[in-house]
Amino acid sequence: MPFARLATATTPTCHIGLGLAAVGRPGYINLGRDHDLGEDRSVETLRTRTHELLDAAYAQGVRYFDAARSYGRSEEFLAGWLNTRSDIGDVVVGSKWGYTYTADWRTDAEAHEIKDHSLATYERQRAESAELLGDRLDLYQIHSVTPDSPALTDKELHAKLAEAAAQGLTVGFSTSGPAQADAIRTALTVTVDGEPLFRTVQATYNVLETSAAPALAEAHDAGLTVIVKEGMANGRLADPHAPDAVRATAEAAGLGSDAIALALVLRQPWAGVVLSGAATAVQLASNLHAAVVDLDDEQLARLDALAEEPVAYWERRGQLPWH
Question: Which residues of the chain, if any, have pLDDT below 50?
């Protein structure tokens, strides 16, 4: 497992990763993007921004970097950075397949990505990822598995994934939607030749959406590394959008609401890596303060009370516009 590399790391931030969804393409659903990115979102501008973020993250102890075929040019940007940092051998690189980026570097596209979990898409995107990342790619995840995803039942696909795993690639999956727990539990039953196929799970968990926690604990107990995405609820837990209870806790600690939100996730015993989705170096530095936040029982109780019903949470997420 590539994540065993993190076990030897000593920095407080080694279990915080950097996700590239917000900087690998000009449009995304995070709140505050107009402020974060401004008007210049050319390929070269976002390439430079991504490299600066990767430099800052590595310097501050971050060792996991997460991309996807559908995150615009995120793999390309990450590959370019890795090529300039060939001396670095202690990072873990993950990407995802299953969505195709279709926005053509526009923020007003009718469709920004198209989902397809077929074997043909896997083979095409696996070749694309390999061309960019080569043997630097440690983890390849099925992107946004739901309970009805054919990726959970396609035996031919499972065989191909197992073949990649036998060649040294770690195979995982990510989940989305109000039935994340069901998808996780079904994925845990997928085997090839009697052996579990998946070694990691990446799921949404945050102050507002906690429904996957029991299933993630089960995955952890089964030996999977748990990666948490959207810990900031696409900006809903960042200032100035954060709920009063989050902001009050942040003010008491002298930190940003983002650090409090991510600290709640980091303290979960099953959370192996928690992703920062920072778009700026200032955001990243603020996110990384989460590693040293200590929350007391009263604060935890106030934060726990903010959890929403999963269907309501995902309906609101689905209504967020692409900026």
Answer: none
